[in-house]
């Protein structure tokens, strides 16, 4: 299983000073046969299941490996994809030199970010699995859909 943007294209552009940065989120199901974690169920959950007399024969949910790649160009140099964050169970980020990963930590979201996400989902257009061979073609398809939804059926 893999979730990516259309044709591996970047999802958004951010400019910081002389650095242009595109972000790209990729979720990949691991190909290894054993878990890196000792158990998917906590000991407390196992005790409660034992007390209630329930047997859990269902398969454990698959472990996912998620990484955030950014397309970076510094002062007109050649652009390259760099992995800047990853999640298996906890979040890890690349530290300031780009050489080491931070200690794993629980990823958090601010309340403001959750409200912004809710607003985008309520008022925005959600388009998954769009087929396009170039960024202009993708933008054209997205623009047509937004105009149809918000413009009362007028076409371009």
UniProtKB/TrEMBL annotation:
GO terms for cellular component: basolateral plasma membrane. GO terms for biological process: regulation of intracellular pH. SUPFAM superfamilies: Phoshotransferase/anion transport protein (SSF55804). GO terms for molecular function: monoatomic anion transmembrane transporter activity; sodium:bicarbonate symporter activity; solute:inorganic anion antiporter activity. Transmembrane segments: none annotated. InterPro entries: Band3_cytoplasmic_dom, HCO3_transpt_euk, PTrfase/Anion_transptr. It comes from the Eukaryota. Residues 63-148 form the Band 3 cytoplasmic domain. This is Solute carrier family 4 member 4. It comes from Chinchilla lanigera (Long-tailed chinchilla).
């Amino acid at each position: 299983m893999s979730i990516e943007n259309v044709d591996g294209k970047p999802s958004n552009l951010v400019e910081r000073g002389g650095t242009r940065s595109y972000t790209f989120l990729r979720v990949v199901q691991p190909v290894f046969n054993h878990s890196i974690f000792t158990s998917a169920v906590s000991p407390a959950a196992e005790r409660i299941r034992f007390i209630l007399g329930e047997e859990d024969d269902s398969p454990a949910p698959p472990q996912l490996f998620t990484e955030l790649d950014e397309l970076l160009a510094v002062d007109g140099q050649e652009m390259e994809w760099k992995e800047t964050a990853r999640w298996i169970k906890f979040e890890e980020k690349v530290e300031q030199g780009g050489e080491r990963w931070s200690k794993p930590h629980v990823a958090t979201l601010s309340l403001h970010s959750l409200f912004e996400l809710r607003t985008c989902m309520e008022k925005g257009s959600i388009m998954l699995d769009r087929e396009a061979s170039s960024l202009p073609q993708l933008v054209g398809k997205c623009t047509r859909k937004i105009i149809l939804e918000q413009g009362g059926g007028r076409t371009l």
